[in-house]
Amino acid sequence: MDFNSMGKVSVITPSYNSANFILEAIESVQSQTYTNWEMVIVDDCSNDHSVELIEAKQSEDKRIKLIKLTRNRGPAYARNQAILAAGGKYLAFLDSDDCWLPQKLEKQISFMHKNDFSFSYTAYRIMLEAGKLTEIVFHVPRQITYKDLLKNTAIGTLTVVLNQEKLGRVQMPLYRDCSEDYGLWMSILSQGVTAYGLNEELSLYRKCNESLSSNKWKSARKTWNTYRKVGHSNLPSTMWYFLNYSVRAMRKHTRTS
Questions:
Q1: With 90 as the cut, is the pLDDT of residue 206 above it?
Q2: How does DSSP assign 119-136, residue by residue?
Q3: pLDDT at residue 229, rounded to an integer
Q4: From CA 106, how far away is CA 246, in angstroms rounded?
Q5: What span, in angstroms and rounded, lies between the C-alpha atoms of 220 and 207?
Q6: Is the pTM of this model over 0.85?
Q7: What is the dihedral of CA 235, 237, 239, 241, to 10 degrees?
Q8: Do the beta carbons of residue 89 and residue 38 sit within 8 Å?
Q9: What is the C-alpha separation between 198 and 139, in angstroms, rounded?
Q10: Do 8 and 88 form a contact (C-beta atoms < 8 A)?
C-alpha cells in the first residue's frame, strides 16, 4: 500500500499534565502500520514533566512536533493550535491519555480513500486508568447525519479522522461551557456532510476517575450548552434532542460504571 500517495495524517493531541500517560499515546502512534503521519502535540502549560517526556520522544522521531503554550487555554484552544499547525491531508484526534491499536490509521484511511469519505469514526474499547482492558467495546452505526448526531453519543473523539482537503480548515468552538469536540462534529455535519462508521475496534479509551466524562452532570450541562450555542437550537428542540442524548448517554455510562 502506497501511504505517501494516500496522504499524510496529522495527529492532533492536546496535553496538560499528562506525564502518566503521554508516552503510551505517542508510542501507539509510532506503532502504526500506516507510517505517513505527523503528531502535533500542544502542551497547555503543564506543570509536571510532560514536556520533558515529549521532547525526548521528539528528539528520536522528527514526525513528532511540540507546541508549548505560555498559559493554560483549555483543550479546545490547544487542539485548534495543533490543527493550524497541521500539514496533513487528514486530521486524526488522539488525547494524551488514550491509545490506538497498530492498524488504526491503515484501516481507517483505506476505508475513507476507497469510499471517498470526508469524515469517519470507528468502534473503540474502554480501558481502566491503570491500562487494564475491559470487556466493554462501543460499536458504531454505519453512518451518522446531523439529525442523528443531535440524539447520539456514538462518535468517540479518539476515533475520528477528517479529510481537511474536502472539509476545509476546521476549528473547535471555544466556548468553555460547551463540549468542543461534539460542537465541531455538529458544525461539520450541519453543512450536509455525513459521517461514516467503521465498526472495528481500533482505539482504546482510558476511563480516568477525574476525566470530564466521569463527571456526568458537567458533561450533560456542556452538551445542553452546545445545542444552544453551537447548534442554535430553540428551547423545545433542545429539550427533545437532550432527552434522546441523555437516554443514550445513561446507557453508555451504565455499561462503563
A1: yes
A2: EEEEEEEEEETTS-EEEE
A3: 61
A4: 34
A5: 17
A6: yes
A7: -150
A8: no
A9: 9
A10: yes
Burial class (CB in 10 A: 0-12, 13-18, 19+), 191: exposed
Question: Residue 40 in 3-state DSSP?
Answer: strand
Bridge partners of 100, per DSSP, are 203
| 123 contacts 159 by C-beta, under 8 angstroms | yes
Radius of gyration of the chain (CA): 17
- Buried-state track 147-164, b at ≥16 Cβ within 10 A, e below 16: eebbbbbbbbbbbbbbbb
**pLDDT over 70 at 188, yes or no:** yes
Q: Which residue is listed with cell 450541562?
A: 221
For 102, what's the count of Cα atoms within 13 Å in the CB-facing half-sphere?
Answer: 2
- Does the domain at 3-209 match CATH 3.90.550.10? Answer given as yes
Separation of alpha carbons 150 and 237, rounded Å: 10
How many whole angstroms from its chain centre is CA 57? 22
Q: Write the CA distances from 244 to 182, 215, 240, 241, 253, integer angstroms.
A: 15, 19, 7, 5, 14
End-to-end, the C-alpha distance of the chain in Å comes to: 41
Decide: 41 and 63 in contact? Cβ < 8 Å.
Answer: no
**pLDDT tens-place string over residues 7-45:** 999 999 999 999 999 999 999 999 999 999 999 999 999
Q: For residues 14-42, b (16+ Cβ closer than 10 Å) or e, as one string? A: bbbbbbbbbbbbbebbbebebebbbbbbb
**Which residues fall within 8 angstroms of residue 62, CB to CB, at 6 or more apart?**
none
Q: Are 139 and 183 a contacting pair, CB within 8 Å?
A: no
